[in-house]
Amino acid sequence: MKPRSPREPVPRSFRWRARLLFALLFGGALTLAWRAVNLQLVDHGFLAREGAARFSRVLDIAAHRGTITDRYGEPLAVSTPVDSVWVNPGELALATDQIPRLAAELKLDAQELTRRVTSSLDREFLYLARHRQPAEAERIKALGIPGVYTSREYRRYYPAGEVSGHLLGFTNVDDAGQEGLELAFDHWLAGEDGAKRVIQDRHGHIVQNVESIRPVRPGRDLVLSIDLRIQYLAYRELKAAIRDQRARAGSVVVLDVASGEVLAMVNQPAYNPNDRDQILPATYRNRAATDIFEPGSSIKPFFVAAGLASGKYDERSVIDTSPGFFKVGVKIFEDERNYGAIDIATVLAKSSNVGMAHIALTLSPLELWSTLTRLGFGQVTTSGYPGESAGLLPAYSQWRPIGIVTMSHGYGLSVTPLQLAHAYATIGSFGFARPVSFLRLETAPPGERALEERTCRELVGMLESVVAAEGTGKLAAIPGYRVSGKTGTAWKATAGGYSTDRYMAVFGGVAPASAPRLAAVVVIDEPGAGLHMGGQVAAPVFSRVIGGALRLLAVAPDRPVNTPEELPQSPALGGTRAAAPL
Predict the structure, then answer these.
(1) Architecture of domain 58-114+122-223
(2) Which of 1, 515, 120, 533 is nearest to 298 (CA)?
(3) Is there a contact between 77 and 87 (Cβ–Cβ < 8 Å)?
């Protein structure tokens, strides 16, 4: 072909194609420029959010729950770090072939896990496992499965286990208090979770911390009044007594007389709050604060206190209990035998129902009710323990002679072990009713005057006769220490009356009697091994618990140690009588 000369004109079709190509190139350039402007200015916010949603995350920073310790710093409840595994169902659904690997590592059923994931595609968060060990969570992250993440949490651990289970209570899976002191002081122990923004890679690993959104506020530590040594001692002795006596249940409460602090509080049967399978309503309730019972003769010292406070009686007063029974209306109240004319100390030592009836009926209902109310009966203590019962003390306007006598024997009114221990502590502090506290106190509160000092000193002296060799509570004696206390044995109420073969065995008292430091109450519910009296079943537990506690606290003895021959011996099984309990 002959080449075209430069002077020859360009064909029309060639010029048209050149213009079209230029127009297309120019249009494409304009489109790209418009798109760039649109992406940078118009859609920038949307695209930035979408990009951040794929790589940026707002993570919660779990707050560390405060530690609970006993009065000397021994840990009772601590929070340990654990990891929880969660998934974004939409992301994991794109890799369903990886679900069997994930299920195997989590020890879950693969089909069930697949069903959970595919049925939650409208969600962006789904827990698969809570509170796994960090090493296990690391193995799961190492699988590199899309949409699988872990988050740091804390799990509550109770080093003392069932020794302090009823007292402390427990937390739920989110580390929030649900029962006991964990619930009562949840506002103090619980921290405030923090939050931060991070950039993650496609495997969920944090590449960069972007910003702190909200700082984490750890929970505050809580120091209890509990002495773990005494708590364990009470737990051990109560458990042994429940086993040996084949009893249904039991409680022990130990208070510091000078401050009102709770040094020990245990119940049987017990439960271990570290084992979630044991957390059942029938086992985790704190019987010492929530359960009420008729106290039997353990209430008699407080009716005597009302008599002493009235001025009608003193430690030298004599009560004629002849002929050994006392009739009120159609009801006859009896003693084990005719004690004749006896002083008030002997009335308490022998737990004379007739003597108590004489004293109670010479006092007005208002005098009795006022004394019992000042001692805390019929009202909750100031402990603030969740679910604490107020017991039952009827209004005095409803009292009739037979009701007054019945109450003086421990029937017709109900108390909790904590209430009863608080009343004995008030007597031991020589009349000052101090608030019950589960927190360690730096200084003892002054308390309110409930009874005159003279009245309480006389009563403490009289109650020593109960623990003497001839008293009903001789097994509560502690070598080297003077003990004041009172036994109680009550028939249990049943439909239509009282059972004559089901008992509550009680002992309450203070020691050392010369200057009381500790007050305690022991309650044994339905002992079934042959013995059932408070002096036989509950008094020995009091002796071992308070005797050990006094030595642990280095309280100086206030009496010579008896020789082994002089120490009271435990009675043999059998030979008990089912007469009216004392």
Answers:
(1) Alpha-Beta Complex (3.90)
(2) 533
(3) no
Phi, psi at residue 448, to the nearest 5°? -110, 145
User: pLDDT confidence of 573, banded at 50, 70, 90?
Assistant: very low
Structure tokens at 305: 């206190």
Q: Which amino acid is at 393?
A: L
Identify the CATH number of the domain defined by range 228-272+286-560. 3.40.710.10
The mean of the pLDDT values for the chain is: 87
Within the chain, all domains assigned CATH 3.40.710.10 are found at 228-272+286-560
Q: With beta carbons less than 8 A apart as the criterion, state whether 415 and 293 touch.
A: yes
Q: Which amino acid is at 80?
A: T
Listed in order, the ranges of the chain carrying CATH 3.90.1310.10 are 58-114+122-223
d(CA 163, CA 36): 71
Measure the CA–CA gap between 230 and 264, rounded to whole angstroms. Answer: 6
Residues 228 and 76: beta-carbon distance below 8 Å:
yes
* CA 265/CA 166 separation, integer angstroms: 8
pLDDT in tens, 394-427: 999 989 999 999 999 999 999 999 999 999 999 9
Task: Please identify which of the residues 84, 225, 251, 297 carries the catalytic annotation.
Answer: 297
Task: Report the pLDDT value the prediction gives residue 519, as an integer from 0 to 100.
Answer: 98
Instruction: Render 508-522 in DSSP notation, one character per residue.
Output: EEEESTTS--EEEEE
Task: Indicate whether this model's pTM tops 0.85.
Answer: no
Alpha carbon 287 to its chain's center: 10
Q: Which of 28-42, 194-208, 294-308 has the lowest mean pLDDT?
A: 194-208
Residue carrying structure tokens 């439909």: 495
Q: What backbone phi and psi angles, to 5 degrees, belong to 97?
A: -70, -15
Q: What phi-psi label fits residue 131: left (phi over 0), alpha (psi between -120 and 50 degrees) or beta?
A: left
Structure tokens that stand for 421 in this block: 């221990």
Mean of pLDDT values over 229-247: 97
514 catalytic? Reply is: no
